[in-house]
Design goal:
274 residues, alpha/beta, Alpha-Beta Plaits, Rossmann fold, seven-stranded mixed sheet, four-stranded antiparallel sheet, 8 helices, 33% strand, globular
Amino acid sequence: MQWYDIEVTLPPPLLESTYNFLWSYVNGLKVKKTNNNFIVKAYLFSPSPHDLLKRLNNFLRIMGKSCQVKHSPPVANPACLSSNSEFLIVPSPAPYKPPFDLPIFLQRGKSFGIGSHPCTIYCLQALKDIFIRESAGNIKQILDAGTGTGILSIAAAKLGAKDVTGVEINYESIKEAQENVNLNGVTKEIKIMHCSVTEIKGKFNLILANLYGTLLIEIATSLIQRLSPRGRLILGGMNVPHEKAVISTFTQHGLKTCSFYRDEEWSVAVLQGI
């Protein structure tokens, strides 16, 4: 038994379906955007990767796509996790836990946010970039609006955040998010609440809102009110055609755009308060 690294280069329309297919078979997944494609790396602890490679190639043929697929044993250094490590999403229960990168353990549940959607990928990258630029000690309070599986809250805690609040209105998602928080051993760092972002109190240095365009516009005032002076806001779930309308709702209140993560269809933006 050893770890194998299966890598497939995908066009954006094929990302979610392929990721979801692999989710049922592998012991870890991570995604990187490169030019106009996504590179999905799937990690498998097995005597051989050939059975999964056959299944994957058959799946891609059914989807009518010819994609580059290759495999090799991964090179991993489990000794330490640095800021250069990448998030690795581990489907749980996990009989074999990858001893490398920054693992985020997620149940094979129903809530949104297992790392397959481009906006989730972009939000994770934006979050990591912010923590690289600033020490975790300077990002004291984080709000995750619409936490879903809790993936972004857990990612923040894995990067060193100590005070994360995840809010969610769906009761089943609340239960799933709390179980994922427990799985990752970050119960001291993350508080999951069953409420709307419009009900939350306090100020936050960083707000994560990976939702969708019309909802972002509806709750813009609440998000802005909860943002600390010069705090950062990560807005996700925007279709590119609606991006300008969403962003202008926030910039007209004085926020400024810092960076974008996008493809032809989806967009994530990082804004900063005044």
